[in-house]
Write a structure and sequence with these properties.
By secondary structure, the chain is of the alpha/beta class. It is 24% helix and 13% strand. The chain contains 4 helices and 5 strands.
């Protein structure tokens, strides 16, 4: 596997049950991605979500299924202010779904300058931690002409989030 690549091929990886991959989830929302990734064998060691209401929802949703994820792993913290360097020795995978309002089909479209555009800080997290792999999801609008195909720009930034750290990134 190329550093930074998670392939969605027929050979989807499953970490050994006794060695789950320590994972940081950004933009945790209600915890759906964390729930699925935990079922796939990843160990969510930290979840970052700015909304305290969403953090409460995560705790409620995950407590019954994965008590070890409730409260301790979820932080009500703005990704733009988060210190990711402290996770560099603990995290092997970063996941998340950065906010999509700036490029989605409905609502106001502020584009790259929209304060809801969290991709620059997503790239910063990857650069500060240097994980073995990352997986991010977003809306189709990021690939459309009206957004200048921002998805391609994000892929270029993720391919080298800091000098000397390179990944193979696919859309």
């Amino acid at each position: 596997m190329v550093q930074g690549e998670l392939s969605m091929s027929a050979h989807w990886f499953r970490p050994p049950a006794d060695q789950p991959l320590p994972t940081l989830e950004l933009f945790a929302g209600c915890g759906a991605m964390a729930y699925g990734l935990r079922q796939a064998g990843l160990n969510i060691v930290r979840m970052v979500e700015a909304s305290s209401r969403a953090v409460a929802t995560v705790n409620q949703n995950l407590e019954a299924a994965f008590p070890e994820l409730a409260n301790s792993a979820v932080e009500a913290e703005d990704v733009r202010k988060a210190d990711f360097a402290k996770d560099a020795d603990k995290v092997r995978v970063i996941t998340g779904g950065p906010p999509c309002e700036f490029s989605s089909g409905g609502g106001k479209h502020g584009g790259r300058a929209d304060p809801r555009n969290m991709w620059p800080d997503t790239v910063r997290a990857v650069g500060e931690i240097g994980p073995e792999a990352f997986l991010f999801e977003n809306v189709k609008g990021m690939t459309e002409q009206r957004t200048g195909n921002y998805a391609e720009e994000v892929c270029r930034l993720l391919a080298e989030p800091r000098p000397g750290l390179r990944y193979h990134v696919e859309l």
